[in-house]
Amino acid sequence: MKRIGLLTLILTVGLLLTGLPAQADTVIGTYDQNYGSVDIGTKVTDLTSGPLSGQYLWQYNVNNISFNTPGGNGFSGFEIYLPDWVPDIENETPDSPWIIDGFSGEPVEWDLPTGDGVMPGQSLTFSFTTNPRAVAIYDDGWFHSWNQDPNSNWQIDIVDTPGMHVPWMPGLTAIPEPPTLLLTGAGLLALGLIAFRKKIVNI
Questions:
Q1: 6 in any annotated domain
Q2: Distance between CA atoms of 25 and 163, rounded to whole angstroms?
Q3: Average of per-residue pLDDT values in the chain
């Protein structure tokens, strides 16, 4: 009975933890290449109050350390490049003068072809909301700078962003949420303690 009680207690704590708002805050990585480096981090929050309560807020925190290109305008194009449209993506920011989903045809995309984007030493958060979705990893996103030559308005130096955290959809692999890992670990710990106590008794 004591063994069952111990297991029940630990699993109950784990189940309570799974009821906490889902939130992940991760620096995806520092992307270094020929024209400087950029830090991109994600934060996924289960909104529990306000007009967007019940939605997940996806934030991509861009810190431009030193990225710029000759004739470019800093970090001025950012593409998550999901493999398909997610119908519940809404509330994308920043909006004007940034252009949302205007060029590649794949979600989610922000571009600022003219004027200064996120210049070296500056930061900006890009965000949107979805219905509750698991977090997945997708490697096909990118960022870039726009050429400011009026006779040649094109993108410069597209840089891949492997490890990007995105909303889960069919075909992607979800990342286990921390509470789920805690629950699994709690169960394994309980089983280990039971086996250990049994071994002592048999000795």
A1: no
A2: 14
A3: 79
